[in-house]
Amino acid sequence: MKYKTYKLQSAMEYLMTYGWAILIIAIALSALFALGVFKPTVTNACIADSGYLCASPVMNTSGYLSVEFGTYNTQGMAITGLGCSKSSAAPSSMTAVNMHFSTGQESTLLFECPVASNAMGSSFSGTLWVQYAYEGYTGLLSEIGSISAPESTASPFSTTLFDSYDEALYVPVNIQNEQNAATPSPF
Q1: CA 159, 163, 169: angle at the middle one, nearest 5?
Q2: Beta-carbon neighbour count of residue 144 at 10 Å?
Q3: pLDDT digit string (tens) for 76-93?
């Protein structure tokens, strides 16, 4: 007795076998995508140029970047401006400051960086610059480091930042009592 071969059955078995394999691969890729394996994470990094310290960068979604800065050159410097650019070119404008650093001194600086997206988690890479005065020369410009930081909701403001500036920042507050009678005790 001869067996008949069914070509249709053979084709269906072939399609089912490869269909299941393709389905399993698609599910595995979907799971990896959902876990963020294909989305590179940007870590906070600041690579300082020689003579400078650049550490602990934190950026918010408005483009303000807080960096721990220090100078380790042979003499101190008077910083008159802070700048941040998206490339290795110097920024077109600097934020005016008046800070004096002696050798080995560290403090937190606040840079305003040009961010294209205000979305949390988007990354920023660029270069940090200082404008400074030294031994009678003013307007000197120096690159202090390359930055890579994700934008986060963490506030880059810290109390040590205000110790660095010559004048404190104040916000006017007006308090008005609109009650007709005194507040009863105990309140």
Answers
A1: 75
A2: 25
A3: 788 889 988 888 888 888
Q: What is the pTM of this model?
A: 0.58
CA distance 29 to 49: 41
In the prediction, which pLDDT does 140 show?
82
The Cα–Cα gap between 174 and 110 comes to 28
DSSP labels, 14-32: HHHHHHHHHHHHHHHHHHH
* Phi-psi region at 14: left, alpha or beta (left = phi > 0; alpha = psi -120 to 50): alpha
Q: Whose CA is closest to 80, among 63, 100, 61, 62?
A: 100
Q: Are 45 and 148 in contact (CB under 8 A)?
A: yes
Q: Which residues contact 133 (CB under 8 A, 6 or more apart)?
A: 77, 78, 80, 139, 140
Q: Taking 50 as the threshold, does the pLDDT of residue 129 lie above it?
A: yes
Q: 106: which strand partners?
A: 70
Q: What share of the chain is helix, strand, coil (3-state, %, to 5)?
A: 20, 40, 45
Angle at alpha carbon of residue 109, lines to 81 and 72, rounded to 5°: 85
Please tell me the distance from the alpha carbon of residue 151 to that of residue 61, in angstroms, as a whole number.
Answer: 5
